[in-house]
Amino acid sequence: MTAQRPLGVVIATRDRRDRLAVTLRHLLELPERPEILVADNASADGTRAMVTRDFPGVRLLALPVNHGALARNHGARALTTPYVAFSDDDSWWAPGALGRAAELFDAHPRLGLIAARTLVGPAADPDPLNDVLAGSPLGPAPDLPGTQVLGFLACGAVVRRSAYLQAGGFHRLLFFGGEETLLAYDLAARGWGVSHCPEVVAHHHPAPAARSGRPALQHRNALLTAWLRRPVPYALARTRALAAQARRDHHARRALREALVRLPAALHDRRPLPPRVERAARLLEGRSA
User: Fold this and answer.
1) pLDDT, tens only, 39-50
2) Virtual torsion, Cα 137, 139, 144, 149, nearest 10 deg
3) How big is the CA angle at 110 (ends 267 and 173), to the nearest 5 degrees?
4) Where would you tag: which of 38, 110, 216, 277 has the fewest CB atoms within 10 A of its CB?
């Protein structure tokens, strides 16, 4: 009987067939030979036919509607590997990175998520977030590798599947854009470690043109995250700040409008962080605990 592979890769995608094909070719060349699953968010550009035709060894999860970041949740549930790496349709893992991630999970039972070091574009420039993560004031923990963090890039994250599913995965309310912080909070609230491990390396090749709506999504989801998990005075202060910004910035106006529509659902799902995680979040923000 063939032993189960310890690690799978979930790729959430929508209408980016050609970029996905490049990513799949890179992943299929990895020496670790992970199980690969494409969670397709109802693409209309022939993505599903391309995967079925050109990549018969890749599993396809054909979602009936666009689930945004929640496609990763569906993918993680469909896999049975103990560890799951996430790639976007424009990102992939360096050779050996996933093997190293599996070793770290095996050696550290409390480790729930690895935030990788991300290299951007053909020149492999370090993503600016790398230095932020490496300089986290949370520092190391005796039972965890690397540096403790409460943030990561989704396309450079590897999770312990059981911890990820226990935490609920990416939250339905955020859909897409800055969805990572809430998951880091929820893992930490359950006692799981979230660590930046720079020896685990991801490559990200984003399209040159930025998505015009991304700043609004980031602002919206940061505010919703505050209402979902942070103290009420903090969430109120974030709301006032975004309202002030909305007077002069159309992205902030859209973010505020969309956040207010979702606020009743956020209050329904509100679960304040345990004091130790709230202290860590404040420390990361440069405020006194």
Assistant:
1) 999 999 999 999
2) 10
3) 20
4) 110
